[in-house]
């Protein structure tokens, strides 16, 4: 997915700060400064993968998450990182749906107005290849249920569909389902790593 320079806004920074304790905020801020390198103002994709996620996360998925959190070629600023982490770990369903929307439209040139069937099909294939679930791949069924005969969907259509089909994709199942997805995965460390936000910590 190609990076955009616009910053997604799932929640304002002020709200994100209120959802973490003072000690969590201090720990994350100090770790960010340490990991952000010489300039200390932006975390690179490589640092995000290694320090925030874990090295076991497939690179393509890590890049999606990085971009959806606000990461660009120049890096990700602390405020965007904190907002992204808070949405992933403590966000409500609406915030997580907006996050998934951003994740799936980030590589398209129309400012996130639509998700296109061909791009979503490619994303589904990559998800199921990189993050396999036990059970058959249902790409054709998923595409039909979301798009029908159309070639694109709006945010409202995507949102309505996702509220009914929370487990349609690997990432939506992880973010939206209330069951413990990690038990069904061959690679549970991906899901566990973000759930605790434990990799970005003081050493």
Automatic annotation (TrEMBL):
<dbReference type="InterPro" id="IPR057368">
    <property type="entry name" value="USP32_N"/>
</dbReference>
<feature type="domain" description="USP32 N-terminal">
    <location>
        <begin position="16"/>
        <end position="102"/>
    </location>
</feature>
<dbReference type="InterPro" id="IPR011992">
    <property type="entry name" value="EF-hand-dom_pair"/>
</dbReference>
<dbReference type="Pfam" id="PF25265">
    <property type="entry name" value="USP32_N"/>
</dbReference>
<protein>
    <recommendedName>
        <fullName>USP32 N-terminal domain-containing protein</fullName>
    </recommendedName>
</protein>
């Amino acid at each position: 997915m190609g990076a955009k320079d616009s910053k997604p806004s799932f929640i304002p920074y002020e709200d994100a700060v209120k959802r973490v304790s003072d000690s969590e905020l201090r720990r994350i801020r100090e770790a960010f400064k340490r990991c952000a390198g010489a300039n200390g103002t932006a975390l690179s994709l490589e640092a995000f993968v290694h320090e925030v996620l874990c090295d076991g996360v497939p690179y393509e998925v890590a890049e999606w998450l990085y971009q959806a959190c606000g990461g660009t070629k120049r890096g990700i600023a602390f405020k965007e990182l904190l907002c992204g982490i808070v949405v992933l770990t403590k966000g409500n369903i609406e915030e997580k749906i907006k996050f998934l929307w951003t994740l799936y439209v980030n590589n398209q040139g129309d400012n996130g107005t639509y998700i296109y069937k061909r791009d979503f099909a490619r994303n589904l294939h990559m998800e199921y290849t990189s993050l396999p679930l036990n059970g058959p791949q249902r790409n054709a069924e998923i595409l039909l249920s979301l798009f029908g005969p159309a070639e694109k969907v709006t945010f409202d259509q995507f949102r309505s569909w996702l509220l009914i089909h929370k487990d349609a994709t690997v990432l939506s199942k992880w973010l939206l389902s209330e069951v413990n997805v990690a038990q069904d995965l061959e690679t549970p460390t991906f899901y566990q790593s973000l759930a605790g936000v434990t990799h970005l910590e003081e050493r």
